[in-house]
UniProtKB/TrEMBL annotation:
It is found in: Cell membrane. GO terms for molecular function: transmembrane transporter activity. The chain crosses the membrane at residues 6-27, 34-52, 64-90, 102-122, 149-175, 196-217, 229-257, 264-285. This is ABC transporter permease. The lineage of its organism: Bacteria, Bacillati, Actinomycetota, Actinomycetes, Micrococcales. It comes from Intrasporangium chromatireducens Q5-1.
Length: 295
C-alpha cells in the first residue's frame, strides 16, 4: 500500500510536469489553430535562462531557493519573449498556411537545438536544487520527494489561472470570440491579431516555466531536453483532445500515472511503451482526436 501511494503521488508529480509542458501547446492550438513544433525550443529557452540566472547572474552566496524563485520569473519572461518574437516574425504571416507553419516550427526547433549545442555544448549542465526540494516528506508511511508537491501545486495554479483568464476576463472573452468569428470581432474595432500575439506569449511563458521545472526534476539542463519533453506534451494534448485545456489536464495525470505504475510493476522502460500504447488506444477508440491537427 505504501509503494502504491508513493507511485501515485510521484505519478501525479510527473503528470503535473507534462501538463505544464502541454498547457501552452494546447492553448496555442485550441485558440489559434497553430500546431507549434517549436514549443520544445520555448521550454529549452526557459531552462537555460533559469540555469544561467542561478549559476552566473546571481551570487552563489544567495540561498538556492531564492535563486530558484528569481530563475522562475526569468524563465517565464524569456519564454514569453521568445513566444512573442516567434509569433510576430514567423507565425503571423502563415496563419492561413498550416503546412508552412509545421515546416517553419520544425525548422526552428532543430535550429534552436543546434544553436544551444554550439553555445553551451551538448553535455548536460548541473542545476542547483533547493535542499528542501531534494528531501522527502512522509505521507501515510510513504517517503515522497518534496519536489513532486511543488510540481503539483504549480500545475494546479497554472490550470486555474488559465481557466480564469479565458472565462472570467475581458481578454479571454475577446480571445474566444476571435476564434469563433474573427471578422466580426475585427469589425467591432478589436485588434484580434494583437490578442493572438498575447496568447502565443502566454503559451511561451508556460513553456519556459515547464522547461525550468523539468530541469529541477532531472537535475540538469541540456539542448535535447525540450524535444524529449515535447514528445510527451504532444501525446498528452492528443489524448486530452486537441485544444481542450481540461482534457489536457486529465490526460497529463493519466500519462504520468501509467508511466510510473508500468515502470514499477512491469520493468524499467515499459512505462514509455505503455504511454504510446495508451495513445494508440485513444486514437483507435476516438479517431477524431487527430482530425483537428490534420485539418
Amino acid at each position: 500500500m505504501t509503494d502504491l501511494l508513493l507511485l501515485v503521488v510521484t505519478g501525479l508529480g510527473l503528470g503535473a510536469l507534462y501538463f505544464l509542458a502541454a498547457s501552452g501547446l494546447s492553448l496555442i492550438y485550441g485558440l489559434m489553430g497553430v500546431l507549434n513544433f517549436a514549443h520544445g525550443a520555448f521550454m529549452m529557452a526557459g531552462s537555460y535562462a533559469g540555469w544561467w540566472t542561478m549559476t552566473s547572474l546571481l551570487p552563489s552566496s544567495m540561498a538556492v531557493a531564492a535563486r530558484l524563485a528569481v530563475a522562475v520569473a526569468v524563465a517565464i519572461v524569456v519564454g514569453a519573449l521568445v513566444g512573442f518574437l516567434v509569433e510576430v516574425v514567423l507565425i503571423r504571416p502563415l496563419y492561413r498556411h498550416h503546412i508552412q507553419q509545421v515546416l517553419v516550427t520544425v525548422g526552428l526547433s532543430l535550429a534552436s537545438v543546434a544553436a544551444a549545442q554550439g553555445i553551451w555544448g551538448a553535455d548536460p549542465k548541473p542545476l542547483p536544487k533547493p535542499e528542501w526540494m531534494s528531501q522527502t516528506t512522509e505521507l501515510f508511511g510513504a517517503r515522497v520527494p518534496n519536489d513532486r508537491f511543488v510540481f503539483i501545486l504549480v500545475a494546479v495554479a497554472l490550470f486555474l489561472g488559465l481557466l480564469a483568464l479565458l472565462h472570467l476576463t475581458q481578454l479571454g472573452l475577446v480571445i474566444r470570440a476571435g476564434v469563433e468569428n474573427r471578422t466580426m470581432v475585427e469589425a467591432l474595432g478589436i485588434n484580434v491579431r494583437r490578442t493572438f500575439t498575447i496568447v502565443f506569449s502566454i503559451g511561451g511563458a508556460a513553456a519556459g516555466l515547464a522547461g525550468l521545472l523539468y530541469s529541477q526534476y532531472s537535475g540538469t539542463v541540456s539542448p535535447a531536453q525540450g524535444g524529449s519533453l515535447l514528445i510527451y506534451a504532444f501525446i498528452v494534448v492528443v489524448i486530452g483532445g486537441m485544444g481542450s485545456l481540461p482534457g489536457t489536464a486529465v490526460a497529463a495525470v493519466a500519462v504520468g500515472l501509467v508511466q510510473q505504475l508500468a515502470n514499477y510493476y512491469a520493468a524499467s522502460g515499459v512505462g514509455d511503451l505503455s504511454v504510446v500504447l495508451l495513445l494508440a488506444l485513444v486514437l483507435l477508440l476516438r479517431p477524431s482526436a487527430m482530425k483537428g491537427a490534420l485539418a
